[in-house]
Amino acid sequence: MKLLVLGATGLTGRHVVDAALRSGDSVTAFVRNPAALADLADRVTLATGDATSLQDLSATLPGHDAVISALGAGNSLTSIRADDLFTRSSTALVAAAKETDVSRLVWLSSFGVGHTLAWSSIPQKMIYRTLLRNIYANKATADESIRSSGLDWTVVLPTRLTNDPAKGTYSMGDRLPMKGNPTISRADVAAFMHKAVHGSEWIHRSPVISD
């Protein structure tokens, strides 16, 4: 499969790239700074661009079988505001995908966004409604634009992400019971996203995943 990976230099995106390469996929890493993936220069195609730009995405998408978006706002306290990253990128990506006839999309969001807030535990709700309020509102709008796009989408909703090694086992479903503030490693999330893009089980679904 020929995959376009958005957010390829991010903490989760790099795991997606690695998983795809291990499986033998052809990978195009869509990045702002190609130097960040210099160690993979001979194994991936590097495409420089802005994930919120319809022009940049439309120029890169043709010839790909699917897109995995692992875009994120980063880990620092200064990144708890989305600055419309997710709404702008989802709008551009949906338009570019339709323009270039690339229908398969796996999109990384977060548990607690949109309707899943109602399923959250009390500790999760406290975090989602305060510290992450802005970024989750932006993600909710973006997720709905993906779901209403007409594409073959999957919106992935992981619990709190960690940098722990992959376990290879995790819970997944349209809804999961929550206690406390559960986590899942970025490596396991990436493995799930890569598996999902290769199958049809999760098309038009929003799986929640957690340890």
What portion of residues is helical?
25-40%
Number-wise, the strands total: 10
CATH class placement: Alpha Beta
Radius of gyration: 16 Å
Largest sheet: 8 strands, mixed
What is the CA-CA span between the terminal residues? 28 Å
Mean pLDDT: 94
How do the strands of the widest beta sheet line up side by side? Answer: 3-2-1-4-5-6-10-8
Contiguous low-pLDDT stretches (5 residues minimum) are none
Order of helices and strands: EHEEHEHEHHEEEEHE
Return the domain count: 1
Q: What's the CATH topology label?
A: Rossmann fold
CATH-level-4 superfamily name: NAD(P)-binding Rossmann-like Domain
Could you say which structural class the secondary elements and strand pairing correspond to?
Answer: alpha/beta
Percent in strands:
15-25%
The number of helical elements comes to 6
InterPro entries: NAD(P)-bd_dom, NAD(P)-bd_dom_sf, Polyketide_Oxido-like
Organism: Streptomyces mirabilis
Domain NAD(P)-binding: 7-197
Protein name: SDR family oxidoreductase
Question: In words, what does this structure look like?
Answer:
Pfam families: NAD_binding_10. This is SDR family oxidoreductase. 33% of the residues lie in helices and 20% in strands. It has helices at residues 11-23, 54-60, 85-100, 122-128, 133-147, 186-197, and strands at residues 2-6, 26-31, 45-48, 66-69, 104-108, 152-158, 160-162, 171-173, 183-185, 208-210. The strands form two sheets. Strands 3-2-1-4-5-6-10-8 form an eight-stranded mixed β-sheet, sandwiched between helices. A two-stranded parallel ribbon has the order 7-9. Helix 2 (54-60) packs across helix 3 and helix 3 (85-100) packs parallel to helix 5. The longest helix has 16 residues, at 85-100. The two termini are 28 Å apart.
